[in-house]
Amino acid sequence: MGHGGNVIQELTADHREVDALFAQIETQTAADSRRRELADQLTIELVRHSVAEEEHLYPAVRRYVDGGDDLADKEIADHREVERLLKELESCQPGDARFDTLIGQLKSSVTAHVRDEEDRLFRLLADACPPEALGELGEKVRKAKETAPTRPHPAAPDTPPLNKLLAPGTGMVDRVRDMLTGRGKQD
User: Is residue 81 within 8 Å of residue 49, measured between CB atoms?
Assistant: First the structure.
């Protein structure tokens, strides 16, 4: 969950973790219960990552990057679509035909979002934002992921200040639910 480095290094490491989770899901047989566990872990990582970006990355993009409002709005819209797919996936079992369809749609959406961030947004931010600010943002992102929700909440606010106020409480409730059900517990 926390990798170290500046905000770009931190979020890029998250992207590679998500890529690895998709690859693991794809190597399992259709009815393997491990696919549900991997899908839950994928959901946890994507939700934490999205919340941290919405709390810290996109406000920085708005502040430092020319045209940052439009860029941030586009990325937040991408998050909404991913969160909608994650919410749908939550009720599917690995043997359901819908499970594979949703994983495919999710992978396509996430891959396009990651490519856009890594090829465009991160470069623009690195050029416009002071290195010390990028480092501070990395630390803020790591802290946000520690308290972020672990389940999709499509109706939750995705821009400051409400997202920063509500996410830790929602995250606490999600982590209690996860603890009680064993969801996200890695062997």
Answer: no
